[in-house]
Specification:
This protein has 337 residues and is of the alpha/beta class. 20% of the residues lie in helices and 30% in strands. The chain has a 15-stranded mixed β-sheet that branches. It has a four-stranded antiparallel β-sheet with strand order 16-15-13-18, with no helix packed on it. The structure holds zinc ion. Zinc ion binds at residues 58, 61, 144, 147.
């Protein structure tokens, strides 16, 4: 069913699957953005929180798109104790084109928040999320992958929060995805993120990086799919306890914290990037992490890239061809639980 965004009936019992019609900017037509809202089939006692889950915020990141698409129909409203909202392909235009940003307006959805009702396509979709979904949800999950930009050790992610009790609750939620790592990352890197805005509204907002290279990782899909179910169980929306995922228990992943901009090292020159250390490894200051080759010479010159400090290599550049200034490596501190 295709509807105008402001006509959605949020309270209808059971599963409602719609495509929201957002008018294109430069041509006659619409971006049809899928949304599923699932309410309990019949009134339930208690007040379980609303959980909102987003995938495809970047169009070339696929694990969340496929796992959430299945969850839209797999979640049974007869079992649910509260409302679940799923948008598996938030930047629908980018998803359709397999690009990070929407092709229609060139906007990266995860820099567009809180959006603008009079802005271009991506800003209008962001505004819909900011005004219609985030206010009614207590828990917000925005699930990513590395795309072409970055390779991550399989992780969920969250920001440092000044309120320790809130941080602990967010960390507990992030740990339910049973990823080998939980990445605590800097808010200073960029602005306009969906999770930034949700956090500023007092919500529990969790991200994650479940694959990369514009592929579909079966491991990443499993962590997204069961991780969301674990969150719903933990929040009392589904019966049962959180389960292990591919043999990993929730709450056992290593916490790696990189909340200083100096943890994010840009490429000092352009070249072919050869990483030599697996993601997630412990590194010591001075360790060789990779080489950047200047192939305009023969024999080719290369720049050795060394760890600037001790820590865990949580992310590095994804592609072989690397331009100067791109974030090349991210090293964080392991933090005890
Ligand atoms: Zn992303």
């Amino acid at each position: 069913m295709i509807i105008q965004p402001d006509t959605l009936d949020w309270d209808r019992p059971g599963s409602t699957h719609v495509r929201l019609s957002f008018g294109l900017d430069g041509s006659w037509g619409s971006s049809l953005v899928p949304l599923t809202v699932i309410n309990p089939s019949r009134p339930v006692p208690g007040n379980a929180p609303t959980v909102a889950v987003f995938g495809g915020t970047h169009g070339n990141e696929y694990e969340s798109q496929v796992a959430l698409t299945r969850l839209c129909t797999d979640l049974d409203p007869d079992e649910l104790g509260g409302r679940v909202i799923i948008m598996p392909r938030l930047s629908e235009d980018a998803c359709r084109h397999g690009t990070r940003a929407a092709v229609e307006d060139g906007v990266n959805m995860n820099r567009a928040f809180p959006g603008d009702p009079h802005g271009t396509l991506s800003y209008r979709i962001a505004h819909f999320v900011s005004t219609m979904i985030i206010p009614q949800a207590e828990v917000i999950l925005d699930l990513h992958a590395g795309g072409r930009e970055c390779a991550y050790a399989l992780c969920t992610s969250l920001h440092p929060l000044p309120d320790q009790a809130r941080f602990d609750r967010a960390l507990e939620l992030a740990s339910l995805f049973a990823t080998p790592y939980v990445f605590v990352y800097s808010r200073q890197l960029a602005t306009g993120l969906l999770t930034d805005y949700a956090e500023d509204q007092g919500k529990l907002a969790i991200g994650g990086e479940f694959g990369g290279g514009e592929t579909v990782s079966p491991t990443g899909v499993a962590h997204v799919y069961q991780g969301v179910i674990n969150v719903l169980r933990h929040q009392g929306l589904l019966p049962g306890q959180p389960e292990s995922i591919l043999g990993r228990q929730p709450g056992t992943g290593r916490i790696v914290r990189a909340d200083d901009l100096s943890d994010y090292v840009p490429a000092p020159c352009s070249g072919i990037w050869e990483p030599v250390v697996p993601l997630g490894n412990d590194v010591r200051s001075g360790d060789l992490l990779g080489r950047l080759y200047d192939v305009d010479h023969h024999p080719a010159r290369f720049e050795p890239i060394r760890a600037h400090r001790d820590g865990v290599l949580i992310a590095c550049y994804q592609r072989a061809v690397c331009e100067t200034g791109r974030t090349l490596i991210v090293i964080g501190d392991p933090v005890p639980r």
